[in-house]
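Sequence and structure are kept together here, with a separate record for every protein. An example record follows, reproduced without changes.
>
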Amino acid sequence: MTDSKKENKIIFICWLAYAVAYIGRLNFGASIVAIVAETGYDKATVGLVSSFFFFAYGIGQLVNGILSKHYNGRIMVFGSLMISGIINFMMPLCRSVSVMKYIWLVNGCVQSVLWTTLIKTISEFVSDKKMPSAIMAMSTTNTFGTFVVYGLSAFFVKFFNWRYSFYTASVLLFVTAFIWFILYGSEKPAPVIENKNESGKSAGRNTTVIVMLVSIALAGIANGFIKDGINTWVPNVLYEEFGVSQSFSILLTLLLPLVATLSAGVIKLIHDRIESHNLMNLILYVFSAVLCLSIILFLRIHKIVPIMICFMLTSATMAMVNNVITSMFPLDRRAVINSGFAAGLLNTFCYVGSTVTAYSLGAVSEKSGWNSVFIIMLAVSLAAALISCVGSIYDKKHRISVMEA
């Protein structure tokens, strides 16, 4: 097998593992409108289940980012997928939301192994020539997984019930675990990344990268808050504000990842022209603020078509920000900072925002309505734009090119 084929194999199995993992983590959010209707719990209580997952996943990202350099990638990813499959099988058997949240917390713990381990694997075994393809591929895992899980959920809610989406995810996770284990094999590609830092320059460069890391991490909180806020609560907005059926509201939500899939190519084109990760985030968060303002307007005049367009564009924008934060930065700066650690740390900050959004926005909508929810998202977008603006100014003053890094 040629080196190119080995690299393609690594990219494929890393993509597959994380795309299917998304199906086994977003299925609760995709089914939340049906779960709320069936159980009779309020949205804030049911949203707490997602918050438990996000909390465990976020903390786990930080821990696994630190420990990932010691992991056997073949075993750790296989074990994570298998255990997540078992947990997904258990979820529909629970009759109490209070039990569900602890089971889903365990799912967050075991899935937190994946991203850092997969990014470390790519950074070690994929060449500079193939790296853009790897970044492009991994940037589609979120949107692909979201599209599949919302499609499955809409189908099962319409013709069966929401529990079947968990059983299906369980089977997919088991199958993917064995595909990963078999294709990874025992042969390991030779590491291709060498640290090119000169000792006299490394301290200054590391300080610069750390400052960049801080600004991007803070922007990551906003990314998780808006991204998962949109993905979790859009079906409820459509169901409550426009009288759309449960299954059709979930089906309409499929449009979000469908459009977001195209964003992988868009952010690559942007990155080809803009090197600063902070500057890319600044542009995207300003656009997000405009979209949130538009959503507030369209909610007031009760127009479903333009509001769906805004939801789709917001989802695509947040997918691009997430790609910049959790894929591009760790892999672009892999020579000066451990990619597994950087990916884990940045994903932790993203999931801080996710943890807050699942419960808090559900509670806000119960008390003040959906208009208040999007006013909060507008404020969060503006705050992230300000942080990214400061970071981009620092980037310009202390420039480290990708090649130098």
